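> forwarded from #structure-qc
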């Protein structure tokens, strides 16, 4: 009987213990933001690093492309943000933007502005569905050593997007 009581007690303690993403206080849940740094070396020798929320996402690498994806499985696309290396010259950037615009079977409006990535001015393009006036995705085009990085955001939370963009470092 003492063994059963002890095992039950240990089980309850384990089940009620604090995890990495939530803190329990007075019958409410407080979200804990735990961000980790991801650093890796690309095949061309450039080193990329950025922060990501480890409590809800993972980083996957496929060649020179990086994906920040949701840990939870859902019916929709779990890719929250992607960083892609394009081995094209800077003068081909307009062609790349035009290609991305024409991927859809509906009219897309482009909204362009600048944003600072890695301490340098970069081009941000938002792809807006003209029919619904909704954001489809945004891409930041960042140039480093004649290589274009596409930072693709699939309409994620604005705070999530800003924090990752501000943390990107490519050397």
């Amino acid at each position: 009987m003492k063994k059963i009581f002890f095992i039950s007690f240990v089980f309850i303690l384990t089940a009620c213990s604090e995890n990495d993403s939530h803190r329990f206080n007075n019958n409410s849940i407080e979200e804990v933001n735990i961000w980790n740094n991801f650093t890796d070396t690309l095949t061309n020798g450039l080193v990329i690093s950025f922060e990501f929320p480890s409590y809800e996402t993972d980083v996957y690498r496929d060649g020179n492309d990086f994906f920040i994806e949701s840990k939870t499985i859902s019916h929709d696309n779990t890719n929250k943000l992607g960083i892609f290396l394009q081995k094209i010259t800077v003068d081909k950037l307009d062609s790349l933007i035009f290609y991305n615009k024409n991927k859809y079977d509906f009219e897309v409006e482009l909204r362009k502005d600048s944003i600072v990535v890695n301490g340098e001015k970069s081009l941000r393009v938002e792809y807006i569905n003209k029919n619904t006036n909704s954001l489809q995705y945004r891409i930041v085009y960042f140039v480093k050593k004649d290589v274009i990085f596409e930072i693709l955001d699939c309409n994620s939370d604005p705070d999530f997007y800003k924090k990752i963009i501000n943390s990107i470092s490519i050397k």
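QC bot note: Confidence is low (pLDDT under 50) at residues 1-25. The chain has one domain: 34-170.
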